[in-house]
Amino acid sequence: MPSKPTTLAAGECASETSDVQARFAAFRGRQIQVLEQLAAGASLERTFQAVVRMIQEQSPGTIASVLLLDPDGLHLRHGAAPDLPAEYNRAIDGLAVGPGVGSCGTAAFHGRRVIVSDIATDPLWQPFKELALGHGLRACWSEPIFDSHGRVLGTFAMYHRHACHPSEEDLQIIRVAAHMAGIAIERQRTEEAFRLAERERDRLERDVEEQRRTEELRQVSEQLAMATLDAISANICVLGDTGVITSVNQAWLDFAEENYFLQRDSGLGTNYLAVCDAAREKCEYAGAFANGLRAVLRGEVPEFSMEYPCHSPTKQRWFSGRVTRFQSGQPVRLVVVHENITARRRAEEELKTISSRLLVATRAAKIGIWDFDPVNNRLVWDDQMFEVYGIPKNRFSGAYEAWESSLHPDDLQRGREEVATALREKDEFDTEFRILWPDKSIHHLKAKALVQRDDAGQAVQMIGANWDITEQKVAAEELKRAVAELGRSNADLEQFANVASHDLQEPLRAVVGCAELLVQDSAGRLNADDGELLTHIVEGTRRMQTLIRDLLAYSRVGSRGGWLTPTDSNKALALALTNLDTSIRERDAVITHDALPTLVADPTQLSQLLQNLIGNALKFCKERRPEIHIGAQPREGGWQFSVRDNGIGIEPQYRERIFVIFQRLHTRAEYAGTGIGLAICKRIVERHGGRIWVESEPGHGSTFHFTIPQKEEFSAWTSPTASNR
Ligand code: ADP
User: Per-residue pLDDT for 697 more than 80?
Assistant: First the structure.
């Protein structure tokens, strides 16, 4: 832009001068306006259009145009030419600059103003003459647009529709226009560069932020990884490609410290391979581990693991050591994990011991173990099973049908159903069946098994045991026969004893009667010795009568027991006391009792039981006045009775013996008796399903206890009809 456009007016006449001055003042005003628009941020296109209009106003008849030079400096592009025909604008858009390319192409090429006064004749326009003339364009002068460094940015052209030459004013105007366009372009380019720089700065900032975040993330991941490793109880370390420890977890540090082979902080940086190599002499496992480490390091194997003992002075320990290769880029790293597996090893050893014990036990007990998979119909037998079934291994198909084919035909259906039921709805299987050995011998087997199910309740496994119970079966049968035989002979014996003692009583009574008559008749006639002999005969016979009576009572406990029926034990006691009335009076005994229960018992035998015990309590009291208490306490499943006295008591060593028949602790001279009373008591109590025992302290009395279990009313195990006498 010219610094003093008014100088244009120099040399002109006065009237013209004022006219020119006015126009230039207006021109300056327009320039300021355009520049203000530019400063306010108007777009390049708007600015160009404003400049074009400004020029066209300033120089009427002129058609102005702005072309922009590509950054490569080779082609011109349409900038602004609102009043040139659109078709013309399109035709010259992209025009290659050159020495003879019209006014603009040439001006841009040489970087200097080009004035063509007549397009029709000027050689510069030769190639475009038709185009220009076709649009009524005849003259064109073009001014290069420069940036502040003198580089060509484009061209500003002024067209005329007739051949003409620019005046000095036109030249001034075109310079100003080109200058302003240059400012606009430069400004726009500066802004663009600025925006680019800003974008670049933003991108860089984003990159930096991204890097910062990535780094932060890396650190967090690293910390997380370490925290995770620290939370693991196994000892873990990472080795570099030479075997140097690059990181360790807390467990590794603790272990190292505890075992004194590495100082707490010296784990890192230690060459672990060298540590293992150094221990090679003393410990074969260290050498093996070093070899494994090397093999993984060299990539010969992807990983290595071994189990080894690592006993401390105080503890027996086992470890598993595992080495895995880890390669993310270069170099290779190894992860070493040592895990304490002592608990697992112990469990395994225990399991082994238990298994071998079980094996020994099942062999010794001749128990066969089997495992049936119902889903795949696979039956597995251990060696003992073949012994139990008496078949060689090669004759066993390993399917369920193999088992069925061994079953006794009479047990086949039941066995099949029991297995099916167990698989369908039971967890346990417990049965007995018969099998036929190949030699046709019959064997009784016992089977017990457990059924395993999946989550859906489907049976997936049945594990069980079989053992031969033929001997027990035979023995049980024999026992049953023997018991029946014994029962029969006992009944015969009882009947015989009953008959014999009953029949013996008759002649005895006759002997006693005769002897007594003889005593009376011979009174004073016999000498002293004969009299004494006769007395002995009478006493002996009486004693024999008592013995026979008691024996008869003993034998009748079983054979003549009555029905067990609800019995009021108060009544049973009352009867016993009535029977003992004479003795009670003679001894002036004090007898007390609790309220006694009603219970299922044989009323006669209960009364006899109480009578025997109270009778003994009266008898074994010596000179003391007898004090006897009969009690009854409810106990779980029945009642416990007691008969307590203040008599002579019983030495501890005799407390069992006194219940055996004929066992007495005193002579007849001291205490009369046959030694059968307590044996009868024991039989009665046992018949009721109870038990009898005595607690005593010599000199301080005895307490006889007996229990009568609670039971529903039922007939006695020995029917009252068993005896016919
Ligand atoms: P007997 O009374 O006919 O001797 P028992 O069978 O009734 O036979 O008793 C066996 C023995 O038990 C008695 O001889 C006696 O020595 C001892 N005995 C039984 N009851 C008592 C008791 N209440 N106090 C001390 N001793 C007893």
Answer: yes
Is 474:504 a contact under the CB 8 Å cutoff?
Answer: no
Taking the C-alpha atoms of residue 723 and residue 315, their distance in angstroms, rounded to an integer, is 76
pLDDT of residue 414: 94
CA 664 to ligand 1 centroid distance, Å: 6
**Which of 617, 609, 693 lies closest to 649, judged by CA?**
617
Q: In angstroms, how far apart are the furthest CA atoms of the chain?
A: 218
CB 365 within 8 A of CB 467: yes
Q: What is the pLDDT of residues 298-308, one digit of tens each?
A: 989 999 999 99
Is the C-beta atom of 617 inside 6 A of ligand 1? yes
Q: How far is CA 210 from CA 198, 205, 219, 567, in A?
A: 18, 8, 14, 101
Tokens of 355: 């298994």
What integer pLDDT is reported at residue 269 of this predicted model?
Answer: 84
Nearest atom (ligand 1) to Cα of 645: 23
DSSP strands (E only) in 330-478? 333-340, 367-373, 378-381, 428-436, 442-453, 459-468
CA distance 250 to 234: 9
> For 238-266, how does the pLDDT look when each residue is reduced to its tens digit (9 = 90+)?
899 899 998 888 888 888 777 655 554 45
* Nearest by Cα to 597 from 638, 636, 563, 564: 638
Dihedral sign for Cα 189, 190, 193, 194, please: negative
The CA distance from 336 to 293, in Å, is 9
Task: Report whether residue 645 contacts ligand 1, using a CB cutoff of 6 Å.
Answer: yes
Residue 661 Cβ < 6 Å to ligand 1: no
For residues 16-25, b (16+ Cβ closer than 10 Å) or e, as one string? eeeebeebbe
Q: Is 640 helix (H, G, I), strand (E, B) or coil?
A: strand
**CA dihedral for 171, 177, 183, 187, sign (positive or negative):** negative
Summarize the chain as % helix, strand, coil (round to 5).
Answer: 50, 20, 30
From CA 328, how far away is CA 198, in angstroms rounded?
Answer: 37
Distance CA 114, CA 136 (A): 20
Q: What is the pLDDT of residues 432-489, one digit of tens each?
A: 999 999 999 999 999 999 999 999 999 999 999 999 999 989 898 899 998 888 777 7
